[in-house]
Task: inverse folding
């Protein structure tokens, strides 16, 4: 049964008409009245920058917050491979329906149909918009746009700009935002971090922030607040996320009443550079696009120590091509990751620590020539060489799965509103579109869809009835109390004066979550994690050491707050994984697999979103359900064989 | 297998805030894996400092994949260190040897005041983009993406310029503290493309003049190109100057038509 608070508000009508029906029925705000509404956007990645720029163009009074020095630094910038759109420029049979279907199937039937269909629809507009902004997408010689393939699809629908698609799209959105900042319609708050959200009379009234240069804590009131603050992959400590990515904004909202959906749905990306040693602080992704031309293999026999070029063909196991012949090396991420883990666990791993598998370009170089391979992937090959000291043109790359993206996030309805009225979540920060597994090149699509083509409509529908109504100011007692609590919290970290740094705790916390709530989960392991995490959290509260003070730049202090939020989130991730007694997408419970080792879903009992309500202690959070209804797509076993 | 470097001496600039005079402090690294990145070495040092009850060294960093442009550092007097075409976060310790003394400073430019230790304020770069580094195309009305074919060499040249990560190394490396390579990269990216033509002349004028408000003048040293982690060519500076010169004439003509 769907919980009463979790109404998805998906409009009536046939799937293809729902979004049009919504737009036809929504309430509007007169252009002259838009400037009377203040909207706060937290985060300046693809979702945040595109939402803020578009809302300002429409006439709203917008404030943008980023903890970076510049909005252009947001982690969207690191996306390499591309962005999907159902343009069918190749004439290879693509359509809105097919992108919709691939996304729902790729997510292992755990996403909301209405949201995903809208995503596929607006994917067309995104490419148009970004080209108009001057994004230099790759072109054919005739001047038309080029596309390539990504995992989980048999079409070439992925647009790209060398290996820097995320950078170019983010710079496009950033430039549009910069224009509004220059025009004075957006106020930018850089090096300022959200430390709390404020709810007055059941509505989001604004946020409390901390200035990372001066330590100043202050309040900001608004009619509506949008969180575009990314995912929580850094809960694992080692991940491909940027070092400063964190869950704080989403978690602080969760603590104030926003339900957190499917926290156990995390994506482990199959192609990252394996860990080299214990000092390592983060892992680096090698784009999935490499699997267009690279072949994944391990030696057939465990303990084969020969260099790759001395292992003959018949003693190699191209396991993805063998197990999933129709998708081959482009099998989806969750499936490829598990297959890599099994290959390494069977003792057939390669590299000095035997912790990787080969991604081999020898065939591609033989077929296409080195120049073509260089043109397609040159910057990725250079990056690989800088990090490992090995030349991937002459020896295979070594890759291994790593935490990369989180499908879970704040629960939102069709309008992208959380369970707190007036508080929205967009991009990776929400849970809505990718179910239990995201397909490659779909994160950029979702961030821009939410920011450009969804929020600017749905926010107006919420604001229209609030015209000329007073909103609580920053002198309201709720703001004052939140400010006071934030000051005490940060002073509290400084006052513990223990012996261990925030990084120490983050590393230990990440190890527990990776071991028990990573690529493979078991009831026993999750219960172990749920006994270890609260104990480590207690130690954190007693033994943390933060040097320096709270009135100037103090990165150790910033980190302390983020690690504390990861502790609480980590417990919720494990609880969610424990309660979801099935395997689906990135959530693989070892107890639920078929005889071939593939994930076994339980549609009868788990075709729902689990949305958690905070009660003061994450170990006591209450689980609510939104039943997923499949009107258009028939639930089927997900096969890529 | 990884090897270790031993007996490194780091001379690091420490400064408590914008008003502090600042000074170099020396730190010894007894042993570090050559697989470690340069910033991971600083992480290890910071862990040690916190363990000793001292304040960690502040430095900007984020993606550690050489793309976000957050990291900086003058390493032995070179912006982003000794490896060409490489941002500090992608520099690894295998480029150094045991016994080395490494001097680490923040970006040094009048336009980039030091906030603390190795962290500077690069906001003037954003001001340049806000002045004109965009194409005015409000969300909603864009025509089909394939309506304007863009010849591949043009798209490739625009992409070469667009690769700029906005780190500010060009400014830090320049004896004049000029931001011409940064500005030229953004101007050229947009001025090369058909979509950028409508605002070509107003863009270059506004961006160059905003740049001049904050930064020094270019005297063709070429240090910027050598320091650029994306190896962006100074040819783009020539293109920007050419466009700027033409813009001054063209924009005057446009004004007289009003």
Result:
């Amino acid at each position: 049964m769907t919980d009463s608070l979790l109404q998805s508000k998906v409009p009536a009508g046939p799937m293809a008409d729902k979004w049009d029906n919504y737009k036809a029925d929504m309430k509007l705000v007169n252009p002259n009245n838009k400037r009377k509404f203040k909207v706060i956007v937290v985060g300046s990645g693809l979702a945040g920058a595109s939402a803020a720029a578009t809302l300002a163009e429409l006439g709203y009074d917008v404030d943008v917050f980023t903890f970076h020095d510049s909005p252009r630094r947001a982690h969207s910038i690191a996306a390499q491979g591309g962005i999907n759109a159902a343009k069918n420029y190749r004439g290879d049979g693509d359509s809105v329906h097919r992108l919709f279907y691939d996304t729902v199937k790729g997510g292992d039937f755990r996403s909301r149909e209405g949201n995903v269909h809208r995503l596929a629809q607006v994917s067309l507009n995104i490419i148009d918009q970004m080209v108009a902004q001057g994004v230099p997408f790759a072109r054919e010689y005739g001047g038309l746009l080029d596309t390539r393939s990504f995992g989980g699809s048999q079409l070439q629908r992925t647009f790209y700009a060398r290996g820097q698609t995320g950078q170019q799209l983010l710079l496009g959105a950033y430039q549009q935002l910069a224009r509004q900042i220059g025009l004075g319609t957006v106020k930018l708050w850089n090096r300022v971090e959200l430390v709390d959200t404020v709810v007055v009379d059941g509505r989001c009234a604004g946020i409390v922030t901390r200035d990372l240069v001066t330590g100043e804590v202050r309040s900001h009131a608004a009619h509506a607040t949008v969180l575009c603050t990314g995912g929580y992959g850094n809960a694992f400590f080692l991940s491909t996320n940027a070092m400063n990515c964190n869950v704080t904004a989403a978690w602080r909202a969760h603590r104030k009443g926003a339900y957190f959906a499917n926290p156990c749905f995390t994506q482990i990306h199959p192609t990252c550079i394996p860990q080299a040693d214990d000092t390592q602080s983060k892992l680096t992704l090698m784009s999935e696009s490499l699997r267009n031309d690279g072949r994944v293999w391990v030696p057939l026999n465990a303990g084969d120590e020969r260099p790759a070029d001395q292992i003959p063909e018949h003693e190699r196991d191209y396991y993805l091509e063998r197990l999933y012949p129709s998708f081959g090396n482009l099998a989806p991420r969750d499936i490829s990751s598990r297959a890599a883990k099994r290959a390494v666990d069977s003792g057939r791993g390669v590299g000095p620590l035997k912790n990787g598998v080969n991604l081999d370009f020898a065939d591609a170089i033989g077929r296409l020539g080195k120049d073509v391979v260089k043109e397609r992937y040159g910057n990725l090959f250079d990056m690989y060489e800088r990090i490992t000291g090995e030349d991937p043109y002459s020896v295979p790359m070594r890759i291994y799965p790593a935490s990369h993206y989180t499908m879970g996030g704040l629960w939102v309805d069709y309008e992208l509103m959380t369970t707190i009225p007036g508080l929205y979540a967009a991009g990776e920060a929400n849970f809505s579109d990718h179910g239990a597994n995201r397909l490659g090149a779909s994160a950029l699509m979702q961030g821009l869809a939410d920011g450009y083509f969804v929020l600017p409509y749905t926010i107006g529908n919420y604001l229209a009835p609030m015209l000329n109504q007073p909103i609580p100011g920053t002198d309201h007692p709720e703001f004052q109390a939140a400010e006071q609590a934030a000051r005490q919290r940060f002073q509290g970290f400084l006052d513990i004066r223990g012996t261990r740094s925030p990084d120490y705790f983050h590393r230990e916390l990440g190890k527990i979550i990776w071991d028990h709530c990573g690529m493979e989960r078991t009831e026993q392991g999750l219960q172990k994690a749920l006994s270890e995490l609260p104990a480590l959290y207690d130690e954190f509260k007693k033994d943390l050491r933060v040097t320096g003070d709270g009135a100037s730049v103090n990165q150790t202090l910033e980190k302390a707050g983020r690690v504390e939020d990861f502790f609480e989130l980590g417990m919720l991730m494990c609880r969610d994984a424990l309660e979801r007694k099935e395997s689906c997408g990135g959530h693989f419970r070892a107890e639920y697999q078929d005889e071939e080792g593939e994930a076994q879903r339980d549609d009868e009992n788990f075709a729902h979103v689990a949305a958690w309500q905070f009660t003061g202690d994450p170990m006591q959070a209450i689980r609510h359900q939104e039943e997923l209804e499949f009107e258009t797509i028939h639930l089927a076993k997900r096969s890529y064989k | 297998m990884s090897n270790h470097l031993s007996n490194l001496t780091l001379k690091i600039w420490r400064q408590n805030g914008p008003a502090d005079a600042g000074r170099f402090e020396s730190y010894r690294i007894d042993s570090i894996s050559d697989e470690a990145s340069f910033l991971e070495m600083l992480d290890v040092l910071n862990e040690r400092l916190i363990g000793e009850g001292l304040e960690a060294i502040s430095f900007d960093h984020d993606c550690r994949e050489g793309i976000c442009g957050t990291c900086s550092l003058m390493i032995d007097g070179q912006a982003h260190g000794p490896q060409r075409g490489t941002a500090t976060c992608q520099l690894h310790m295998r480029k150094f040897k045991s016994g080395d003394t490494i001097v680490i400073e923040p970006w040094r430019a009048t336009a980039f005041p030091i906030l603390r230790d190795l962290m500077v304020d690069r906001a003037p770069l954003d001001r340049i983009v806000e002045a004109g580094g965009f194409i005015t195309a409000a969300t909603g009305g864009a025509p089909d993406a394939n309506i304007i074919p863009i010849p591949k060499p043009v798209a490739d040249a625009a992409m070469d310029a667009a690769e700029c990560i906005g780190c500010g190394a060009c400014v830090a490396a320049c004896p004049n503290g000029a931001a011409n390579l940064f500005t030229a990269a953004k101007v050229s990216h947009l001025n090369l493309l058909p979509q950028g033509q409508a605002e070509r002349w107003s863009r270059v004028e506004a961006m160059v003049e905003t740049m001049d408000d904050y930064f020094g003048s270019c005297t063709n040293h070429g240090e910027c190109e050598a320091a650029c982690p994306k190896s962006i060519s100074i040819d783009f500076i020539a293109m920007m100057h050419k466009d700027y010169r033409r813009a001054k004439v063209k924009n005057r003509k446009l004004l007289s038509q009003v």
